[in-house]
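Budget justification aside, the reviewers requested a transparent look at the raw inputs and outputs of the sequence design task funded under Objective 1. We therefore reproduce one unedited record. The lines immediately below are the C-alpha cells for a 331-residue chain.
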C-alpha cells in the first residue's frame, strides 16, 4: 500500500507543536488561578506539598491508563490488528499526547503510527481510536451519574450531571450506529464534495461496525469506569498532599463532575472550564478555602493531564523515530 510518509510526519509535527502551545496555555491558566487568590500562599502550599501523595496521584492515573490499555488491546484483537506488546503499549500511551486537542480528536493522527507498526490500514486504526474516545466519554458519564446519585447533596447535581452526560454521549451515539451507517452508505455517492472520499468512508464504516456491538460496549465500560475512578483519585491524593483529610469518593465526585463540565464544552484539554470547576466545586462541596482548592486543583491537573500529555509526547517522538529508522533500513 502506498502512503505519503512525509505528509503524515508533517501532520504529526504540527499536532505536537499545537500540544506544546496548549501546555503553555494550561500553565497560564494555573498562573491565573493562583493570581485570583493569594498567589504567594498558593505557591507556598504547592511547594510544601507531600511528594509521596503527589506520586500516588500520578500512579493512580497511570494505573487507570493501564486498565484502558486492556480495552484498547481488545479493540485491536476484534479488528485483527497485530502489534508487538511493548510497541502496542507505547502506541496506546502516545494517544495521551493528543488529550489537549478538541474532543481528543487529535488522537486520530496516531492512526499513522498504528499503520506503520502493524498490518492495519489507517481506517482500521481510526475506527479503534474513535471507539476508544467514545467509550472514554461513556465511562466518565457512567461514573459521574453513579457518584451523583450516591453522593450528591441534592437533585440539582444529579440532574445537571445527567444532562451533561446526554449532551456528551448523544453526538457519538447518533453518528456511530448501524442505522446511520446504512444511510451514509445509501447517500454518500450522491453528495458532490464527499463522493471522492466514498471508498475511504465505506472502509471506515466496515471496520467501525466490527466494534459497534453490545459486547464491545459492555467490555469497554468494565474497564473504563474503574479507570476513570482511579483517575479521579488524583484530586483526593492532591488534598492529602496538602494535609487535607477529605472523603475519597466525595473528592472523586468533584473531580468527575468538573471533568464532565470540561468535556462537554469541547475545549482542548478541557482547559479553563475543568480547572475553574474543580476550584469552585471543592469550595462549595468540600468547604475548602479558595487558596487550598486552587493548590489542589493545580496538583491534580498536573497528575491527571500534564503527566499523560508529556508521557504521550515522549512516546510519540520515540515511535516516529523508530518507524523512521525502520524505513531507512529498507531503503
Amino acid at each position: 500500500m502506498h502512503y505519503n510518509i512525509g505528509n503524515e510526519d508533517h501532520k504529526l509535527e504540527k499536532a505536537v507543536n499545537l500540544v506544546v502551545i496548549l501546555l503553555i496555555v494550561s500553565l497560564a491558566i494555573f498562573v491565573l488561578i493562583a493570581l485570583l487568590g493569594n498567589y504567594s500562599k498558593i505557591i507556598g502550599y504547592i511547594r510544601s506539598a507531600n511528594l509521596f501523595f503527589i506520586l500516588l496521584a500520578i500512579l493512580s492515573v497511570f494505573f487507570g491508563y493501564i486498565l484502558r490499555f486492556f480495552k484498547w488491546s481488545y479493540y485491536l484483537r476484534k479488528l485483527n490488528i497485530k502489534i508487538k506488546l511493548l510497541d502496542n503499549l507505547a502506541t496506546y500511551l502516545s494517544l495521551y499526547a493528543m488529550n489537549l486537542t478538541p474532543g481528543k480528536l487529535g488522537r486520530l493522527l496516531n492512526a499513522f503510527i498504528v499503520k506503520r507498526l502493524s498490518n492495519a490500514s489507517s481506517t482500521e486504526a481510526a475506527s479503534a481510536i474513535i471507539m476508544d474516545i467514545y467509550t472514554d466519554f461513556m465511562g466518565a458519564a457512567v461514573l459521574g451519574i453513579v457518584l451523583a446519585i450516591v453522593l450528591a447533596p441534592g437533585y440539582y447535581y444529579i440532574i445537571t450531571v445527567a444532562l451533561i452526560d446526554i449532551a456528551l454521549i448523544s453526538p457519538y451515539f447518533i453518528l456511530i450506529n448501524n442505522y446511520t451507517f446504512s444511510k451514509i452508505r445509501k447517500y454518500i455517492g450522491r453528495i458532490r464534495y464527499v463522493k471522492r472520499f466514498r471508498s475511504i468512508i465505506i472502509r471506515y464504516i466496515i471496520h467501525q461496525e466490527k466494534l459497534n456491538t453490545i459486547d464491545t460496549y459492555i467490555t469497554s465500560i468494565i474497564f473504563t469506569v474503574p479507570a476513570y475512578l482511579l483517575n479521579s483519585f488524583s484530586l483526593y491524593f492532591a488534598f492529602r498532599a496538602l494535609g487535607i483529610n477529605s472523603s475519597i469518593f466525595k473528592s472523586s465526585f468533584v473531580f468527575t463532575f468538573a471533568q464532565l463540565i470540561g468535556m462537554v464544552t469541547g475545549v482542548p484539554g478541557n482547559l479553563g472550564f475543568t480547572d475553574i470547576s474543580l476550584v469552585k466545586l471543592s469550595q462549595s462541596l468540600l468547604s475548602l478555602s479558595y487558596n487550598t482548592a486552587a493548590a489542589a486543583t493545580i496538583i491534580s491537573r498536573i497528575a491527571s493531564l500534564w503527566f499523560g500529555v508529556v508521557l504521550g509526547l515522549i512516546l510519540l517522538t520515540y515511535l516516529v523515530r523508530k518507524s523512521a529508522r525502520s524505513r531507512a533500513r529498507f531503503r
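Residues 5-176+212-329 form one domain. The mean pLDDT is 87. Computational costs for records of this kind are itemized in the attached budget.
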